[in-house]
Each structure stands twice: as C-alpha cells, then as structure tokens.
Amino acid sequence: MLYIYHFSIAFAFVYISRFFQQRLSSLFALRHVPGPKPSSWVWGEEKVLYYNTPGALYLDWHRTYGNVVKFTGAFGHQLLSVTDPHAISFILGEGAYQFPKPKGVRAWFRMLLGEGILWVEGKEAHEKQRRSVGPALSPQSARNLTPVFYENAAKMVSQWHRLFDAQHSEEIVIEMTNWAGRFALDTVGRATLSYDFDCLRGQPHTLAETLDGLTNHEKSRTSFYMKALFWLLPSILHLGKKGQMIRKTRKELGDLTTDILKDAEAVSDPNSKTLMSLMLRADKATAVVRMNEEQIAAQIRTIISAGYEPVSATIAWLFFELTMSLEWQQAIREEVSTAGDPTFDELNNGYPLLDAFFLETLRLHPPVLENHHEAAETISIPLLEPVAGSGDLHLVIPKGTIISLPVNVIQKDKLTWGFDADDFRPERWLHRGTRTSRELLAFSVGPRGCLGRNFAAAEIKALTVTLLRHFAFSCPHEIEAFQSFVIRPRVKGEASSSLPLTVRRLM
User: Fold this and answer.
1) What is the full DSSP assignment across 28-93?
2) What is the pLDDT of residues 240-254, one digit of tens each?
3) Counting CB atoms within 10 angstroms of each CB, which of 128, 293, 406, 428 has the fewest?
4) Three-state DSSP class for 170?
5) What is the pTM of this model?
6) CA 98 to chain centre
7) How many other C-beta atoms are found inside a 10 Å radius of the C-beta of residue 395?
C-alpha cells in the first residue's frame, strides 16, 4: 500500500510539473500574440464563452485583435483562435495530420462512438477508414438514394396532415426541432444502413430521446465543468451524470448497431447501394487488415450521430429563416412547384433560389461553431497578415497548443462577405462568379472534411421542397441561438432547443 501511495504521489508530481512546464513554454512562445485578459484566474475565458451567446465573444475578439487571438482556458492553459486564411488552409490542408483533434475531443468520440472515422488520427489510419466509408457517401451514392429522402419527407407530410385533421384546423403549431431530428434519424437509418428507426410515426422514441438528452440541456454547472476541464483532463468525461448519459447513449447505439450489423450480414445483397453494404464490400476487398466487428460498429455509431445533430439543426435554422423572409419563402415555393420530385442533380443545379437559401443558412448558422485542433509538435504555420505588432508572416505554435477555428467568425468576415456579412442575404449566392460554396467551412475542408456533405445537402433540400409544396410557415416567437453539441435554435429564455412554428396547410 505504501508503494502505491508513493507511486501516486510521484505520478501526480510529474504530471503537474509537465503541465506547468508546458504552460510556461506556451506563455513565452505566444507572448506577442494579442488577446483578452483572463476574466477568471481559475476558468480563464471558459465561463464567459459557455454562458454567452454562441460565437459572440469570438466575433468581438477578432474584430478587436485581428486574425490570431490568444485567450486563456481553465487553470491558465493557452488557446489560440485563428481566422487567418493562410493559416486555416495549412491547418485543414497540407498540415491536417499535424493538427489532430485535441485529446479531450478524441476521448469524447471514443467513449460515445468508438474508434471510428471521427476519432481516428494519423494519415495512414485515417485514409484506411476513409476508403471503407467514402464510397458509400460519394455524390453517386447520394444520387442513388435521393428517392429515400423523398419517401421520408412524404412520411413527414402525411403525419403532419394527421395532426391538422386531429385538431380540425388548417393552421396549427408544430415543434420543428423535434420533427427535424426525427426526419434526420430515419433518413440516415434507411439511406445508409437499410434500417428503419421509425421515428416519423411521431410516437416517443428511445433513440431520439437518448441522443437529444445527451446534449440538449447544456447550461448546467456540471456540463460547464466538463466542457472547461476536458481539454486538460479527458478522463472527466467518465464522471457524474454526464458520464452516465454518455454511457447510456453508447449502449443504446451499441444495441442498435448489433441489430443493424446482423441484418446486413444476413441479407448480404450484392446490389445494395446503402452505406452499410458498400462499406462491408469495400472492407472485404481490402488487401490489408480488415475491420473487426467493433470497428464496423464504431463506424455505424459515428454515422448515426453525424447524420442526426448537424442535419437536424440545419433543417431547423433553414425553416426559421424561411419564416423571417416570407418573400423568399414564396419565391422558393414557386421555384420548386414543378411536376415530380427533383433528381439529385436538379437539387444541386436546377433551383438557384433554394440553393442560395441553403448556403446562406449554412453561412450564418453553421451547425458546429468551432473546429478544434491541437499541435502535435511545435510547428510554424504561414499567415496572410502578420500578428499585430509583428512583421513575421509565420507563427510558431508550441506542441500541445489547442487551436480553435471559429466558423461563425470566418463566415462573417466583412473582407470576404462584404459590409452586410452579418445579415441573412441569400441573394449574395446568386452571383456564382463571386461566390462559391467552397468558401464555407460548415462541413470543413481538406482530407478531414465531412464525407457526408452531399448526403446532407440533398436530404435537406428534398425535405424543403416537399414541405414548401404543402405548407406555409411563420414564427411568432423570438428565437435565439443555443449551443449544445451543435448550435440549435430555441425560444428566447427557454432551457433547451425549441422552434414552434405556425404551420398553415396549403392543399
């Protein structure tokens, strides 16, 4: 026992010594980078970031201090917020594998989803997983499965008509965040896994409630402590009520994954175009070591999670913005009021107003607010403009430094988007000579960019087309942004995400 006690003391001493050594090294190396003074000696800026309007402080900081801002996290550890275009291109492109996800973020993904494509780091390991998952999320795969998007959208319309009939009214209130989540889950299940979660029946659903409950009540003291400390102590994710919720969600996803995998192996349809079938066939065709059952299960859990929150949040924000501009709502309705369901290619290229509105929604309401990375080694990154007070077009970043790429700031940059960058103006996308979707970071870019961007865009547009043909939307409430795992809308002052829309039946 005495040996264990002495070992524990020695281990703690080494850990604390390394922490302060790294902190001092970081303070010295980044001493010339401007930024706000710590608002708390214990929590740094973590508390004000957590309780403030999502993204508001990043906007203030960058408009005050420039493209590279230093701020303080819990217990004095240094973080950088970067919006410099050259630095971003390097971090997400050429240097992508030198800037992995921070240890805390990887611990979250590992505990919740397993060692899937969101968790994996290193060029060789990542490319292996990407080869297994990539073909099933390609534009051609999304093209083949577009009919599934319309089938689920039609189910949603049918359920809404039942709500109208039950209330004997042509105008009712519908909670959009709830239905957006149900649509996203059923679509990712059917289109990628050949599995019907059956969320669109409108009845209570265990998976939907579990996923929603994990991140939809974030303004608690426990959630703050976990978010502030997991950068330094990833093991904190195992503790308390939040740790229990993560384990519960992992188990719920695990039980479903077992059923999905058994069904896929039993059917083994060589002509199936779903992600599950293509992933299993790609893995069997791999000459090197194949994925085991847990690795495949990790991919399934990852796909379900990635296909749920970002997609459902974007759907909710898009319909909120439609209620804010009834002229655009009517114009898009007229644009899509053609015979039949648009094909995948028509959704991408045939409806410029719909596309412009979708892209502007992604610009002002990116589902993920911050793209986090950690310097694997001390490294020099290029800059378009020197850090304030310096003439150097490179910045040396110490090993272990956590870097935030604030997507909302980048996508509101007035030099890129103009003086009206803060305003929702879809017409900015109608001039293709000056505007391309590649300027958006909502799905990230480079080798670690989102593989499912084509799926997400097609399913969101298919749902929008279908709903606008049947219903008109308005919103009498004041809506604010709310940060859970993604940025969701909620009625101002409420505790969790909510978007009650007044929906009028057109036909």
Assistant:
1) HHTTTS--PPPS-TTTTTHHHHHHSSTTHHHHHHHHHH-SEEEEE-GGG-EEEEE--HHHHHHHHT
2) 777 888 888 888 887
3) 293
4) coil
5) 0.89
6) 22
7) 22
Q: What is the pLDDT of residues 220-237, one digit of tens each?
A: 677 788 888 888 888 888
Cβ(328)–Cβ(357) below 8 Å: yes
Judged by DSSP in three states, 325 sits in coil
Indicate the residue type of 496: S
Assess contact for 224 and 180: CB atoms under 8 A: no
Among 192, 310, 179, 211, which Cα is nearest to 260's? 192
How do beta strands 78-82 and 68-72 pair?
Answer: antiparallel
Spatial distance between the Cα atoms of 289 and 286, rounded to a whole number of angstroms? 7
Whose CA is closest to 438, among 348, 373, 370, 363?
Answer: 363
Model confidence at 42, in pLDDT bands (50, 70, 90)? very high
- Phi, psi for residue 277 in degrees, rounded to 5: -65, -45
Residues 80 and 389: their CA atoms lie apart, in Å, by 17
Query: Cβ(209)–Cβ(279) under 8 Å?
Result: no
